[in-house]
Amino acid sequence: MTSGTTINVGNAAVHYSRTGSGPGLVLVHGSGSACAEMTWGQIAPRFADRRTVITPNLSGTDLTVDDEAPLTVEGLAGQVIAVIEHNGTGPVDLVGFSLGSPVATAVAALRPDLVRRLVLVAGWVATDGDEYLRNLFTVLHHLGAAGTEAFSRLITLTGFSRGFLNAIGRDEVEKLVPLLPPTPGTPRHIDLDLRVDVGPLLPRIEAETLVVGCSQDATVPVEHSLQLHAAIPGSTYAELDAGHVVLFEKTDEFVELVRGFIL
């Protein structure tokens, strides 16, 4: 059974969902999500038989209301920290996907007492210095603010591998595109994507860490996951043959990989 709760964290009324029982497992969504359910809806139940699975909706999603100030990694990390503390389930295992990766990084670095194991999926250290990332995020920011179909098509192209799109075929791709619209909070998330820099926090991570790269990632190229791995002392690296949204392309492989790491 899934339950929803809202707590006040600074300037935000942060909503989160909780399901299952057992040690805590917190899943942090990426940018552009209307809610955590869009990212983790088919993943959370796979862990709920053994874990209390907690999925926060961070500022910029439809379910969390705030003053709409510019987002920061530390601010979003503070929301995750508050959710963990409110549940009293720490230390937890913490999984961050895409923008959720730098957010989870900050949680682990700032509050090592709350994180047992850390999984960073399709993440990156810093946007500045990679002109591909900077330009892609800039285009997505403009298209997201304009609310055009072009945003959804570009997200489809960069979010999924070519092989996956060809395998599901035109009809399924055309059904997929409308499911990926920009939300009102999308430009805020992508504005933060453009400013991410968690480099100074990486040496402070104490939790056992698994970095997961996606070999066909056209949103955040896999080299960024390798950089994360190299910068986090004692981390483990695994690579899945998928595009950015590995949670959908390789659901079974992803669940098996994470489950094996957090046992």
UniProtKB/TrEMBL annotation:
AB hydrolase-1 domain location: 25-256
Biological process, per Gene Ontology: acylglycerol catabolic process
GO CC entries: membrane
Keyword vocabulary terms for this entry: Hydrolase
Gene Ontology MF term list: monoacylglycerol lipase activity
Pfam family, one: Abhydrolase_6
Protein known as: Alpha/beta hydrolase
Organism: Planotetraspora thailandica
